[in-house]
Specification:
Blueprint: H1 17-23, E1 31-36, E2 39-44, H2 67-84
Antiparallel strand pairs: 1-2
Length: 87
């Protein structure tokens, strides 16, 4: 799919609704922008929910919440997903 978009004077890019519909991107998400030979690629960094299943299972054993450990586990899961997708 090819479509036209505009980068504003504030360097903001709005992705056209038809592209969002095609990609089935409905919610706010973080994206990875990469450039190579003056070509820009935008990829979603949203992990598929099934890839995170069980990543916080250690909490079920009555452990106290340690947000640093939780962030590390989520960061690792997101990085692993990105690596599998070749990002």
């Amino acid at each position: 799919m090819t479509t036209l978009a505009t980068i504003t004077s504030k360097n903001q890019l709005t992705i056209p609704q038809e592209v969002l519909d095609y990609l089935q991107w409905q919610d706010t998400r973080r994206v990875l922008i990469s450039t190579d030979n003056k070509i820009m690629q935008i990829r979603s960094l949203e992990p598929k929910s099934e890839s995170l299943a069980g990543s916080l299972s250690f909490l079920s054993s009555g452990n106290r919440l340690n947000f640093r450990k939780i962030r590390e586990k989520v960061k690792y899961a997101v990085a692993s997903q990105a690596a599998r997708e070749g990002l």
